[in-house]
Design a protein that fits this description.
With about 220 residues, the chain is of the alpha/beta class. About 45% of the residues lie in helices and about 15% in strands. It starts with a strand and ends in a 9-residue tail after the last helix.
Length: about 220
């Protein structure tokens, strides 16, 4: 698979490479530092399977750059990777054709999980992004595509929610134990309860369910 990373910061482009190779070890990673370069790569390299796009790089005039790219490769998922992830930014990007919106503040593992979701045909957006649907119901766009019964996150205890949030960020049991000042065996017990309550068979499935639902750790979990 060919993946185009369009960002004017070389440090960002280089930093994404190992995570994209984790996504697909055989992936060819293509670079672009401006919208013009991105369009040139797209025209010269037919068959690009995924585009990661920075909205603030040179040549981008708002969302017109995204629209220009989508016009050329309408079937290819374009994911915005940006340091700016306000509700308006996210919703506008989705309306313009973005398949996902990933803040640059997420961990590399969380980004890989989000991109896997996008490549499976889902949308991935920050879980704090909500908007009104035609029936005036507030929905999370990350869960816009049906994924079965809604995960019952309201059944999680406060501690279980904290542990699931750490899990989504890609942390190991040992790292979670250190972060929450708990024993590693305690983390394992809590994770078994999390899996049972949200209907996950294992760690990877728990992360997928959380990402698909757009779940975010609330301030209070009953």
């Amino acid at each position: 698979m060919q993946i185009l990373v369009a960002d004017d910061h070389k440090l960002v482009r280089d930093g994404l490479r190992p995570f994209l190779q984790e996504l697909d070890p055989g992936a060819e990673i293509l670079d672009a530092a401006t919208l013009g370069e991105a369009i040139k790569v797209i025209e010269e390299k037919p068959g690009i399977g995924l585009v990661l796009l920075d909205l603030m790089m040179p040549g981008m005039d708002g969302l017109s750059g995204l629209e220009q790219i989508k016009t050329r490769i309408p079937e290819t998922p374009v994911v915005i990777v940006s340091g700016y992830s306000t509700r308006d930014h996210v919703v506008s990007a989705v309306q313009a054709g973005a398949a996902g919106f990933i803040p640059k503040t997420v961990s590399g593992t969380a980004m890989v999980n989000a991109l896997r979701l996008v490549l499976s045909g889902e949308k991935y957006l920050p879980s704090s992004t909500f908007f009104e649907d035609p029936n005036n119901q507030t929905i999370n766009p990350a869960a816009a595509k049906p994924t079965g019964a809604p995960p019952p996150f309201d059944r999680l205890s406060r501690r279980e929610g904290e542990i699931l949030a750490q899990l989504v960020e890609g942390r190991t049991n040992k790292e979670i134990a250190i972060a929450l000042s708990l024993q590693e065996i305690t983390i394992k017990v809590h994770l078994r309860n999390v899996y049972r309550k949200i209907g996950a068979a294992n760690r990877a499935q728990a992360v997928r369910i959380a990402l698909q639902s757009g779940w975010v750790m609330p301030e209070v979990i009953n």
